[in-house]
């Protein structure tokens, strides 16, 4: 039996043993009255404010499940009395564990009592950058302003629409960038850590999670439509201790709305979009939450279907825009409270995304025009099934989770420039396509102590297998002769145990230490055939097997003189294991095996919130050392390879600030300023030039404003976001160096709520910017013609939603 599976079995056994044990008796102490002042706001934010005013801890149900109406609470009250008032009329009640600890539970009602009629969803209260939101991306419940790390939260109203994806979210997170290769093709970067804008054999530098399950390995972002979302949590800096490999620069966690017990609700939405010189776009969404008999279980279903009209006119193929994208999918989630302390969660997520063509241009025909002989489609089919079992005890929370993912990706390219490397007579009209299928299975067991103890801990075990099939294929379109064919399978097994200990060793002081010991094995089997390229053998088979046992750490020291100020220092690291290059090229300096890389980070920061909550400031300075950088690059033929380019550094300053100018007007500034350098080049690749890292700007900033008021008594919210990115190199100079110029953009949105309806108007790229947007186009033509990937032209979306 593998060590990781054995460790998981031990933790599962302890979970079942803990199920049979009796909970400890709750400590009975008298509440101390407080002078409490709470404005009418959504329950999660109201509870956070109550925690700050009273010093209590609140656990149990997600407050979003309570369906509580925003209400103001003020006066000299105990914490228990204030909680009762906030929860009055909701589907939740409160249990007191001890004088400082409370638990939200489902409200019980007599069996004979009639079930209440479905209630409309409470009107959302705007969440600004000043709100202290509870999150779990650090593996335990923690408030954003008291977490000693670089974290960002994006929550409603920015997520209240039905047209959101990560490219629209990035300007609201300092240091976050998303490429613009096209739907289902993009990569995510954090904190100036970029290995390449290409997606190839290397594992992602950012861990992307859907709730508690990883949904990427070395594939691009599946570009899930973010419908019915609770929030997005971003944890910056290497996270090898908490999340293992694939979190070299941080973690992005997509948190969905969970099924709500004892509460029926539904919502349908329709939207229409229009861009200049483009056909109409449209979108349809449906959400349904249905409690099951007994009020201990519920299911929540989300469905959507979207057509995004193209804006690139490929004049050699058609007179119309050719890069249309169709995206359809949904989620089905089940929540079952087996017992008050034992909960089963299950979720299935599917999405089918198909783009009919790429979105770059070549030549001088105009910002949205080109003339290619062949279309370059992209299909991205995503499926994920997740199960988790959670047991909450007074001694801590046990959790066992299992995840099974299937991700199928198909991409095609016009490969005419490869014709000069073909060893036989050919038509010159060549086509390259690749299919990638990833099957990823994860199992994890963990035990987390209560968050209100002076000594807190986290222990866990993890096991995963990634089974990937990669089949690139190059053909002569006219003769249908194969010029390159490969069938490659990669199997990566990971096993790890991890722990983290946090100790409040003195008043206002905390220290924490974490370790993760991992064992990774990577096996490759590649069969290459029908090769008709110059200096290539016609056939070949490459196999390999490598292992690694990296150990990652985290060390943190923090000082919190009062609840509004936190100062911290942090040391952490991340890693990725190595892999294999497969080719029949007769002469090459590129090794068959590329090594794993490791990134070490030092960070110091502070977080401040003014007494009245009008001003919030998060600031961090970080320094990163990156050794043996893995990078996906291209051979002269355009075929992929992975290199260890050398060592790099990045020193940066990160800022997130919020200012509530007026009760209904909030301003937020986000910025990151970098000095990325490739300071040591692998001598095997003398053509690489030292300098900046690709796709990482020296500066990226955004300024947004949220204004809330009423129109004839109905809530009306406005949001404006202005963001700028400075210039950046596109690649490391292995091929002809390419530099992207900077650009500025503006997005606008307004939402009106009336009764059970909401109407939203959104304008993206309001400045109609046509600049190159930090992406490459055709990898086979990077050194033959200038390519530009423009932003999507100014697009107007109008959506209407109806709640039930």
Key traits:
22-stranded antiparallel barrel, 47 strands, transmembrane, 804 residues, disordered N terminus, 5 helices, single chain, 6% helix, mainly beta, five-stranded mixed β-sheet, signal, Maltoporin, Chain A
If you had to describe this structure to a student in words, what would you say it looks like?
The chain has 804 residues and is mainly beta. The protein has a domain of 554 residues: TonB-dependent receptor, beta-barrel domain (Maltoporin, Chain A). Helix content is 6%, strand content 52%. It has five helices and 47 strands. The chain has a 22-stranded antiparallel β-barrel. Helix 2 runs antiparallel to helix 3. The protein is globular. The N terminus is likely disordered.
């Amino acid at each position: 039996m593998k060590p990781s599976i054995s460790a998981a079995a031990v933790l599962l056994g302890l979970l079942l043993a803990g199920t049979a044990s009796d909970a400890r008796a709750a400590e009975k102490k008298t509440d101390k009255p407080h002078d409490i002042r709470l404005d009418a706001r959504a329950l999660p934010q109201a509870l956070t404010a109550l925690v700050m005013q009273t010093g209590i801890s609140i656990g149990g149900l997600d407050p979003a499940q309570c369906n509580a109406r925003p209400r103001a609470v003020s006066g000299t009250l105990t914490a228990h009395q204030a909680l009762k008032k906030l929860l009055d009329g909701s589907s939740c009640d409160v249990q007191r564990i001890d004088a400082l600890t409370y638990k939200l539970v489902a409200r019980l009602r007599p069996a004979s009592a009639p079930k209440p009629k479905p209630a409309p969803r409470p009107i959302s209260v705007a969440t600004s950058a000043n709100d202290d939101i509870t999150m779990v991306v650090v593996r335990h419940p923690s408030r954003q302003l008291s977490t000693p790390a670089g974290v960002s939260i994006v929550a409603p109203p920015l997520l209240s629409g039905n047209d959101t994806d990560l490219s629209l979210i990035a300007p609201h997170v300092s240091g976050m960038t998303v490429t613009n290769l096209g739907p289902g093709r993009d990569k995510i970067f954090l904190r100036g850590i970029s290995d390449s804008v290409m997606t190839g054999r290397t594992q992602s530098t950012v861990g992307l999670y859907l709730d508690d399950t990883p949904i990427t390995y070395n594939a691009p972002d599946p570009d899930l439509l973010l419908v019915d979302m609770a929030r997005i949590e971003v944890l910056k800096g290497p996270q090898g201790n908490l999340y293992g490999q694939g979190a070299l620069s941080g973690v992005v966690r997509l948190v969905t709305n969970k099924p709500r017990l004892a509460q029926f609700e539904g919502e349908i939405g329709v939207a229409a979009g229009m861009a200049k010189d483009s056909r109409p776009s449209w979108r349809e969404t449906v959400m349904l939450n249905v409690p099951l008999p007994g009020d201990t279980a519920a299911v929540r279903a989300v469905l959507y279907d979207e057509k995004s009209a193209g804006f690139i006119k490929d004049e050699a193929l058609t007179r119309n825009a050719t890069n249309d994208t169709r995206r359809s999918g949904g989620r089905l989630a089940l929540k079952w409270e087996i017992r008050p302390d034992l909960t089963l969660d299950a979720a299935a997520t599917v999405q089918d995304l198909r783009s009919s063509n790429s979105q770059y241009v070549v030549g001088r025909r105009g910002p949205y025009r080109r003339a290619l002989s062949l279309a370059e489609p992209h299909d991205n089919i995503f499926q994920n099934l997740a199960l988790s079992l959670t047991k909450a005890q007074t001694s801590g929370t046990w959790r066992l989770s299992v995840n099974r993912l299937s991700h199928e990706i198909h991409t095609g390219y016009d490969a005419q420039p490869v014709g000069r490397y073909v060893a036989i007579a050919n038509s010159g009209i060549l086509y390259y396509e690749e299919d990638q299928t990833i099957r990823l299975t994860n199992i994890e067991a963990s035990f987390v102590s209560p968050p209100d103890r002076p000594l807190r801990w986290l222990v866990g075990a993890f096991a995963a297998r990634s089974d990937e099939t990669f089949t690139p294929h190059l053909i002569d379109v006219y003769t249908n002769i194969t010029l390159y064919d490969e069938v490659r399978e990669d199997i990566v097994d990971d096993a790890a145990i991890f722990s983290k200990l946090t100790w409040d060793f003195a008043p206002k002081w905390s220290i924490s230490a974490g370790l993760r010991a991992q064992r990774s094995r990577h096996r490759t089997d590649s069969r290459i055939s029908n090769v008709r390229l110059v200096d290539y053998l016609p056939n070949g088979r490459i196999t390999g097997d490598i292992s690694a046992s990296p150990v990652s750490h985290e060390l943190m020291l923090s000082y919190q003189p009062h609840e509004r100020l936190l100062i911290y220092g942090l040391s952490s690291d991340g890693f990725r294991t190595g892999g294999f290059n497969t080719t029949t090229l007769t002469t090459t300096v590129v090794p068959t095996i590329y090594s794993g890389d490791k990134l070490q980070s030092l960070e110091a920061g502070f977080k401040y919130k003014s007494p009245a909550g009008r001003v919030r400031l998060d600031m961090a300075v970080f320094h990163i050392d990156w050794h043996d950088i893995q990078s996906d690059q291209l051979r002269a033929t355009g075929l992929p390879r992975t290199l260890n380019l050398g060592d790099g550094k990045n020193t940066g300053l990160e800022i997130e600030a919020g200012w509530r100018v007026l009760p209904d007007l909030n301003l937020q500034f986000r910025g990151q300023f970098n000095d990325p350098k490739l300071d040591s080049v692998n001598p095997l690749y003398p053509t690489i030039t030292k300098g900046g890292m690709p796709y990482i700007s020296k500066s990226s900033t955004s300024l947004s404003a949220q204004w809330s008021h009423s129109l004839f008594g109905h809530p009306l919210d406005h949001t404006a976001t202005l963001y700028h990115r400075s210039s950046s190199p596109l690649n490391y100079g292995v091929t002809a160096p390419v530099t992207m110029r900077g650009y500025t953009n503006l997005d606008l949105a307004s939402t009106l709520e009336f009764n059970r309806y909401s109407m939203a108007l959104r304008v993206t790229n309001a400045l109609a910017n046509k600049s190159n947007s930090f992406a490459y186009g055709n990898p086979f033509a990077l050194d033959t013609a200038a390519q530009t990937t423009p932003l999507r032209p100014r697009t107007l979306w109008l959506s209407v939603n109806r709640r039930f």
